User: What shape does this take?
Amino acid sequence: MNYKIVIDEKKLFQIISPVSRFCKSRIRFFEDRSLSYLGDAREPVSFCQLLARYPQTCRLCTKCNEAANSRCKENRHSFSYLCHAGLIEITCPVWYKDIYVGNLSFGQFRRPKKQPDDASLAYWAGLTGLDPDKIRKAYMSQPLLDDKGIAGARTILELCVEKLLKEDVFYVGHQDSINRIEQYVHAHLSEPLTLEDIASHAYMNPSYLSAMYHKTTGMTLSQYIHQVRILRSIYLILNTTRSITQIAADVGFKDANYFSKVFRKRTGLTPTEYRKQIAAGTITP
Assistant: This one.
């Protein structure tokens, strides 16, 4: 039997957001199933914020996140690692009922006495078109963390994971049919995705499928489809130079205005505003 682990995002935010504010450093939850961050990701981190504006450097960050997530699948203990820019990130795997769900992470931090070398600055400047001095200044603005600080950060993340498990942030949904439905959604994201088509693929009555999915996951099928489409559109905004209209079509919205409305409801910004604020450094992905 294949299980789906459902995440209560409201409870998740209620637990990690206050800890982030207290520590003055963002804690994010990376969900393995969607390969995306959940929670409050808008707190600026100067250097990372700078690189995230540009597709080529953003992709370097994405690769680091995915590599750390892969390591978490083989490790039940917190660990620290250096990202592509030599900054420290602390990560703690989250396992529920022997199923890997995702990870919590702190970061990124600068190591004491660590400065970027000229070769690295030139490389990042070549990818972004930014002045190397501006990149150096942003890098040096990252908060410092020594070995004792890393140990403390690992402890905080481990305690947060214990709290998430204790407060039933995760629970088991079921069953193979849920996985089949969601796999179909991901594979046909650019298509209309009607309830009837999905039900036919899952060999289920449409009304039964709708009720079962809602009861099992806590969200309607329509909400899930919108969530996947918006997460995919954010990825495309960050990692491509496609127009907003093209991105809307790529994720299944024929009407770009409706796409903008749904995007704004989930993120608080229109797609155009989101792209501009990423470029301006007002928010980070």
About this structure: The chain has two domains: 3-171, 175-280.
